From TrEMBL:
GO terms for biological process: L-tryptophan biosynthetic process. This is N-(5'-phosphoribosyl)anthranilate isomerase. Belongs to the TrpF family. Pfam families: PRAI. Keywords: Amino-acid biosynthesis, Aromatic amino acid biosynthesis, Isomerase, Tryptophan biosynthesis. Its EC number is 5.3.1.24. It comes from the Bacteria. It comes from Gloeocapsopsis dulcis AAB1 = 1H9. It is an enzyme of class 5 (isomerase). It catalyses: N-(5-phospho-beta-D-ribosyl)anthranilate = 1-(2-carboxyphenylamino)-1-deoxy-D-ribulose 5-phosphate.
Length: 238
């Protein structure tokens, strides 16, 4: 499962979080955010992390040109559109960015209409991300979604779950939903843009324990299923 830790601003924290197990680091390229980071600063973080770690720039309501410039200057592997970008805007951006650069469209879920809206982006973007709606803030709100109401959400493209995830509630969320990845920011922070490495380590311990449990369950099923199959394939004596 993809695990994106968003709102990285410090090279040493980016490096430590990559070592702890993040598959992606997120950089907030929205100037109004307390987690804002420039393309030059993104480069400083990126220079400290292994190349296989994804590097996602988060943008909101800016131009395709600005996104493309930061994507190149920041050596990004993906861009996340966190504002009110239309499917047409995403299609235009797709034509301008190299195909290797992932486009993630974030939907801030206010009501069930947002989930219907998700269908409009299929084919225009690579991945969807569901985040909580907040009247004043675009992201990093710490607010959780109503997971129970999301159980029917099953888009025909990969999707990431965001919104108020913490080391304490991540298992609850994943027991109810099966996203292709998760995205956390304020739930693993001391202050906006200042990640708490103890909380990040706790998150990965929780995910590791979950994986071990799933593996153990799978292993306990194998002998039974294997035996069943052998019986089915026994030669007939008739
Ligand atoms: O984090 C911000 O400050 C931010 C500002 C403007 C647009 C998007 C922003 N964050 C987007 C993210 O990807 C966050 O990780 C996501 O909203 C989840 O945040 P949280 O609820 O704090 O885990």
């Amino acid at each position: 499962m993809r695990v994106k830790i968003c709102g990285i601003t410090k090279p040493e924290q980016g490096q430590a979080i990559a070592q702890l197990g993040a598959t992606a680091l997120g950089f907030i390229c929205v100037p109004a955010s307390p987690r804002y980071i420039s393309a030059k600063q993104i480069r400083d973080v990126v220079s400290q992390i292994p190349r296989h770690i994804e590097r996602i720039g988060v943008f909101a309501n800016t131009s395709c040109l600005e996104i493309c410039q930061v994507a190149v200057a920041g050596d990004l592997t993906g861009v996340q559109l966190h504002g009110d970008e239309s499917p047409e805007f995403c299609t235009q951006l797709r034509q301008l960015l190299p195909t290797s650069v992932e486009i993630i469209k974030a939907l801030r879920v206010r009501n069930s209409q947002a989930l219907v809206q998700a269908n409009l982006y299929i084919g225009c973007v690579d991945t969807l991300l569901l985040d909580a709606y907040h009247p004043q803030m675009l992201g990093g709100t710490g607010k959780t979604l109503d997971w129970e109401n999301l159980q029917q959400f099953c888009p025909s493209c990969p999707w990431l779950l965001a919104g108020g995830l913490t080391p304490e509630n991540v298992n609850d969320a994943l027991n109810q939903l099966k996203p292709n990845g998760i995205d956390l920011s304020s739930g693993v922070e001391r202050a906006p843009g200042d990640k708490d490495l103890t909380k990040v380590a706790h998150l990965f311990q929780q995910l590791e324990a979950r994986k071990m449990l799933a593996d153990a369950e799978l292993n306990s099923k194998i002998p039974h299923e294997f035996f069943d199959r052998r019986e089915i394939h026994l030669p007939s004596h008739s």
